[in-house]
Specification:
121 residues; mainly alpha; three-stranded antiparallel sheet; 49% helix
């Protein structure tokens, strides 16, 4: 029968701790507030870019963040941090009314991913 030495015990404990650290945040969405704040920051940046576009061009905006980036109103495209790749924001701007809409693609699942009224003023 093999005996455990101290190195094997330490290795098993370290492995268990590492697995715990990696699995728990994903399972319980520990970073939920941080992701919501990042999503709102992304939407705010897009909102301001659409506003600048409409003021400069005096026309409605219908397009994507990629379009704003090509016209130098954004430095990069944005995605919702909740689910990662391919989660593009829905956006449009009406020049006549000044209404700009930027919506998270996961707004139904994450109701805290909404631009606050203070940003919209």
């Amino acid at each position: 029968m093999k005996h455990f030495n101290i190195y094997k015990v330490i290795s098993l404990v370290a492995l268990a701790v590492l697995l715990f650290i990696l699995i728990i945040p994903q399972t319980y969405n520990v970073n939920k507030k941080q992701k919501a704040e990042e999503c709102i920051k992304n939407m705010s940046t897009i909102y301001k870019a659409i506003d600048a576009y409409m003021l400069d061009r005096e026309e409605d905006f219908t397009g994507t963040a990629q379009d704003l980036m090509r016209m130098n109103y954004l430095k990069k495209t944005f995605e919702c941090p909740e689910n990662g790749v391919g989660d593009k924001y829905f956006m449009e701007g009406d020049y006549e009314t000044g209404k700009i809409t930027v919506t998270c693609p996961h707004a139904v699942k994450f109701p805290d991913h909404v631009l606050p009224e203070s940003i919209l003023d």
